[in-house]
Amino acid sequence: MATFIAIRNRKQTAGAMQGVLKYVAQDHKTKWGDLKFVTGHNCVPQCAFTEMMTTKKRFRKTYGRQFYHFVQSFPEEDDLTPQEVNAIGLEFAAREFPDFEVVVATHLDTGHLHNHLVVNSVNCVNGKKLHQNAADLQAHRDVNDEICLKHGLSVLEKAERHSKKKRMKPGEYQAGLRGESWKLDLIHVINEALEYADDRESFIYNVEQEGY
Length: 212
Description:
- This protein is an alpha+beta fold.
- 42% of the residues lie in helices and 16% in strands.
- It is built from eight helices and seven strands.
- Helix 4 (82-96) packs across helix 5 and helix 7 (182-195) packs across helix 8 (200-209).
- The longest helix has 17 residues, at 134-150.
- The two termini are 24 Å apart.
């Protein structure tokens, strides 16, 4: 079952973006014979960093968040080729980030094929900055499921929401309203990790990506 997660890159500098772009494009991770599966949407992958920085400078948006980093994973049983996985990644990039520069790097060095998507934080057409939150991530996952189903791949079933809940103490309720309840934050992270995990290892990985 295909999954889609966001990677929290806390360091948001031009150097950090360049480092991530170099990491995802490493030959030993992306090469299969003479073929290298690193492609670009609205950019040439070999000079993506320069193009992304040029976009930022053009619109005077060199400050703040520099990039977003996502991972799109496919299980072995889907029996996809690297070409198919990379094509699905490019399709997703075009659908969800039409006017942003995106590098799609397909990693072949693990038990399952997966795409790394590195997205510039500045729109290369109108200069608007990209902002992402939990709702946006869920929207990306829904589109990812839609694309995968179109290609005949399996997706995770949506978790059922239970109506019965333990009564919350008044103090914790007020903390939750202020966004200061670590318990509610942890519950949310665990529920999200469970929804997009198909085994113990992927659950642990998902939780770790949220900083736990």
